[in-house]
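Attaching the record inline, Q. Sequence:
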Amino acid sequence: MGAGTLAGRCLSALLGLGILAMAASAALADPLPSWQAGEAKSRILAFVEATSDPASRDFVPVAERIAVFDNDGTLWAEQPVYFQLIFALDDLKARAAEDPSILSSDALRAAAAGDMKALLAGGKEAIEEVVAVTHADMTVEAFQEATALWLRTAKHPRSGWPYEQMVYQPMLELLRYLRDEGYKTYIVSGGGLHFIRSYAQKAYNIPPEQVIGSVAATEYQLVDGKPEIMKEPEIIFIDDKAGKPVAIDRAIGRRPIFAAGNSDGDFEMLEWTSSGPGLRFAMLVHHDDAAREWAYDRDSHIGRLVRGLDEGPERGWLIVSMAKDWKTIFPEAD
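Structure, as predicted:
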């Protein structure tokens, strides 16, 4: 073997290693690998870079880098109905099997029978009644243990996966990217506070103290001599629509500079966030991918999106197309 041939092979090997190293470096450098190249990804990257670079005129101090996210339909799926409601229905059926007398209203009987049409026809009051029966008269710890177990073991009717796996991979990357750049990420959801706290750390790496949700009454009690926080049936605050900015102000004390949602229930949160001084970012996840997820907006029974689609673009809000902007939707799924 000639010296020239050996040198050539060594050079080729080194070049090959160099190409692999550059490819690996490029992959590591992309904080949003599940997002398609395009306007949505570019706008997010540009905003985060501008607000986190000390040399930028739009630089924002770390203490003010607050990002808020709706949960249902924004961080994980919400079809065929909100997962917390499915949990409540499963729990109600189990309770009714042991004690049929708890089905004391049309709403409860419809829920136990799985008649979603009749239950939803009863409006917010019917759903609140189901939640009150299934979420009360237990400790917060017991409720969250039951919720976490259900999320691990109950299966989504369409995917067949545990509900805890129905999270959106592109949004997980966005949460991580924001935190890597000094942002503090919060969930601001119409879902129940204790329900979301039971899985937010595991699912999104968001600790319970950074979860804002709808609140049921609780009471301090001594149970068999042990101090406990007990859940009560009364719902005292619904964290939806105009309630979201109010809850953010109460819990955080700062106006966010980044807000993400998916429905008109998030409109006021995005409006309040984007109207503050300095550079701001508001985005709506548009469910327009019937093949990989669901397609719904204006006429949906949940996650209805009308005003956001009509007014969002002229307000400068980003409308994220799940079909066009996301390479994948669920973790380890095509």
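Strands lie at 66-69, 184-192, 211-223, 226-237, 258-261, 281-286, 318-321. The chain has a mean pLDDT of 92.

More tomorrow.
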